[in-house]
Amino acid sequence: MQRQRHNGRRRGSGLLEFGVAIGLLWLLFAGVYQFGYSFYLYNKLQLSVSNAAMFASMAIYDAGNPSKFDTAIKNMVLYGTPAAGTKTVVPGLTTSNIEIQLNPNAGLPTDITIRIKNYQVASIFAKYMLADKPRVTTLYIGQVICSTC
Fold first, then answer.
1. Which of 78, 80, 82, 79 has its CA nearest to residue 94?
2. Residue pair 114/100 in contact by the 8 Å Cβ criterion
3. How many other C-beta atoms can be found within 10 angstroms of the C-beta atom of residue 140?
């Protein structure tokens, strides 16, 4: 029986292959983690905008003070409640990222569009922007009053 002799040039190749495999697996793990985190953030934003649209569709609209209505809706998107809170639904979201559009008919709102604009998601590899996503449009069925009329 002949014994095989190990060539000195092949020493440590297993360690090198292990290092390459760990590097590739780590990169794959980071990509899967980032995709999952981005998906989680988008779902949180979608739920927040949907809840704000449901609240806005039935809230009292004061034609004399529409900023109160807008502030309550923005707080619903930001904090999950009509009153201002301390912790936002997702990190980095501000009132400048929330756009509310009322479509009036004869001075009365008929439908409301709430959208997130220019929200930047910081990922491991790069930052990317959510422009006009998510967006919800709903009919307004609430009561209209005028406090200054």
1. 78
2. yes
3. 20
DSSP β-ladder status, 108-116 and 135-139: antiparallel
Least confident piece of the model among 8-17, 46-55, 99-108, 112-121: 8-17
Beta bridge partners of 128: 121
134 pLDDT tier (thresholds 50, 70, 90): very high
Q: Note the pLDDT tens digit of each residue in 96-128.
A: 999 999 988 877 788 999 999 999 988 777 888
Q: Decide: residue 117, CB within 10 A, 0-12 exposed, 13-18 middle, 19+ buried.
A: middle
The residue extents of the domains of the chain are 13-145
* Residue in the block written with tokens 């990222």: 97
Binned at pLDDT 50, 70 and 90, residue 48 comes out as: very high
DSSP for 7-67?
Answer: PGGGTTHHHHHHHHHHHHHHHHHHHHHHHHHHHHHHHHHHHHHHHHHHHHHHSPEETT-HH
Assign 64 to helix, strand or coil.
coil
Specify the amino acid at residue 132: D
